[in-house]
Specification:
about 190 residues, alpha/beta, five-stranded parallel β-sheet, two-stranded parallel sheet, 6 helices, about 15% strand
């Protein structure tokens, strides 16, 4: 979950690297109507999109559907207009949520890794040295993949240690141990 402190921070730019390996992420914003987010999430699950992008979530994030689907291996959907039919869909998607000052329910907050963006500038788009991120990532893709592989291999060579400040987080313990461990041995704090 990416949370801005100010407007125009470039939250969507963080998705550009994923587009080199996957089709463009599909956006499923909530337009404020009851149940709209749930319908859009279920539609995106049925299409098999690898990334489900919930953009501009500027209110309280408290969806029972989102909470359930982010921990499910298989999610049951009842297609609209078919009360007696149920489809079971494997959940393999990455959920990316962006918004300004998002407030998540307790149920949702334990299922997310928060990335808070703050450039400490009144106009973040005017910061010096701002790169064209999609172009830069495309030009450096091989080096970025190599760097990720080296980080993972370093963690493996050290015996796959847990993060220094490891705390169990429910059903995401294995993921937390792996990602937290890799970042910890590479001295990347804040995970």
């Amino acid at each position: 979950c990416m949370k801005d402190m100010r407007e125009s921070k470039g939250r969507k730019c963080l998705l550009y690297p994923s587009q080199l390996s996957f089709p463009e992420p599909t956006s499923a914003p909530d337009n404020g109507k009851n149940g709209e987010m749930e319908k859009r999430i279920e539609t995106k699950l049925m299409t098999g999109s690898p990334i489900i992008f919930l953009d501009n979530m500027n209110d309280s994030l408290a969806s029972a559907t989102l909470a359930a689907v982010t921990t499910a291996d298989v999610y049951s959907i009842r297609p609209m207009g078919r009360n007696t039919e149920e489809r079971k869909i494997p959940v393999r998607q990455i959920f990316v949520i962006t918004g300004k000052n998002i407030e998540a329910s307790n149920e949702i907050s334990r299922r997310m890794s928060l990335i808070a963006l703050d450039s400490y500038l009144a106009d973040p788009s005017a910061r010096p040295g701002l790169k064209n991120l999609p172009k830069w990532v495309a030009e450096h893709q091989a080096g970025l993949i190599r760097a990720a592989h080296l980080m993972i291999q370093y963690w493996i060579n050290l015996g796959k240690p847990k993060a220094k400040d490891y705390e169990p987080i429910g059903s995401f313990d294995e993921w937390n141990e792996v990602i937290g461990g890799i970042l910890s041995v590479c001295e990347i704090d804040g995970f």
